[in-house]
Write a structure and sequence with these properties.
Layout: H1 17-30, H2 38-44, H3 47-66, H4 72-92
Helix pairs in contact: 1-3, 1-4, 3-4
Length: about 90
């Protein structure tokens, strides 16, 4: 997959929806565990990972609002798990 091309707002889709979800799930799973603060973590990501990370921020905000999750690392891990489960549920339909 060409880096950064899967979220392009222009042109035709480069893959069908199931292929995209499988690719996106893999990219979410590959996001490294943060070892630093949020700003340093974001700066350490390549373009594709940064794009994927920013798409899971709304899920992270919802999890933080409705659950007592401690630090950024714990929130990040829970968000990844939640996103991957949701993708699996959609793909299983």
């Amino acid at each position: 997959m060409r880096e950064g091309k899967f979220f392009s707002p222009f042109g035709k889709p480069t893959m069908d929806s199931e292929e995209f979800l499988r690719f996106y799930k893999c990219e979410v799973a590959k996001l490294p565990i943060p070892k630093e603060n949020t700003a340093l973590y974001l700066a350490s990501l390549d373009n594709t990972s940064r794009s994927v990370f920013t798409t899971i921020l709304p899920a992270a905000a919802a999890l933080k609002k409705h659950n007592s999750i401690g630090d950024f690392r714990e929130l990040f891990e829970e968000t990844k798990i939640c996103c991957i489960k949701e993708i699996d549920n959609i793909l299983a339909q």
